[in-house]
Amino acid sequence: MSLANKFLSILTRRYRLKKSYCSSNRCSSSTKDQILHHLSNPAECHRSKVSIIGVGNVGIAVANITNDIAIVSLNEQKLKGEVLDLQHASQFLYDPSVVGGTDLKITQNSYVTIIAASDKDVKPLDMIRNISADVIKHSPHTFLIIVSDPVNVLTQECAKTLGVPKNRIIGTGCHVDSVRLRHLISQKYGVAPESCSGWVLGDHGDCSVIAWSTLSVGGTRISSTDQWPGLHEEIIKVTKYDGKSTSTWTIALSISDMVKSILQNTRKVFSVSVPVKGFYGIMDDVYLSLPSVLGANGVSEIVQLPLTDTEIEALQRAACHMKTLQQELTC
After folding, report:
1. Residues recognised as catalytic
2. Distance between CA 80 and CA 67 in Å, rounded?
3. Residue 128: C-alpha distances to residues 73, 111, 143, 266, 317 (Å)
4. What is the pLDDT of residues 297-327, one digit of tens each?
5. Chain segment 161-180, per-residue pLDDT in tens
6. How many CB atoms lie within 10 A of CB 184?
């Protein structure tokens, strides 16, 4: 038999076997069953599913690291446009499945849930209690990333009321402030931000603390005599840009980086909201931002920086402010 005839004979046998296999399994006439052969039921636990409570640019940023996204918002018109836009863009990303709705049921089995909602008509503590409790009901093993302000207080409220391990509740804290600090250092010294180091601690915004002793370029510590005036004010004021109401992309991409560290267990260090009682002489039961290792188990370690006495005192003042804010919001 010639080589060509042998090849034809092999193809014929394979075709008959395939035809016999399909017949014995009684393939459905539906399009789906013709294309897909069912072997088992899909898994209900989505290890990469990320849900976002609140409409914004976080969705498009997160879409670059996961293929399963749910977005929830009460603003139906904006939600519809955001989801549709993200669906159209999905082919340029990881081709994610994107769903949107007003009911938190669509967040079921989320691996990470981002709460970035705000409601001027509802007290912050009431809002976070209602949303977080519903989130945990649908995804009891999810990691919570709190973005809504006041972030430290709301993160602590979730940790106190939800009854889930504290390592799975993370507030964005001073992560964005630290990102801005490194950018300003890079601009001053003319090097890439990745080559700059420095931490902003405490509370996001006015009560944040620049840990001057941690500032370095390429591993070389910046001298205390090289501190420039107005740096703290500059970090705070860029929360709003000229002609733009808020720094949406900085926040969105920084949150995406946190999500990536959880999904991929990269164990990067972020300045995020954690319980600080017992650290740096703080005796109040409050949450503040400290550099923390973030990975597949949420927050696994807190980095203990060798801060100066001045920096420790500033952090203790931030804790006192946080305690006062807690009391005001509880009233």
Report:
1. 204
2. 19
3. 14, 19, 15, 28, 26
4. 999 999 999 999 999 999 999 999 999 999 9
5. 999 999 999 999 999 999 99
6. 17
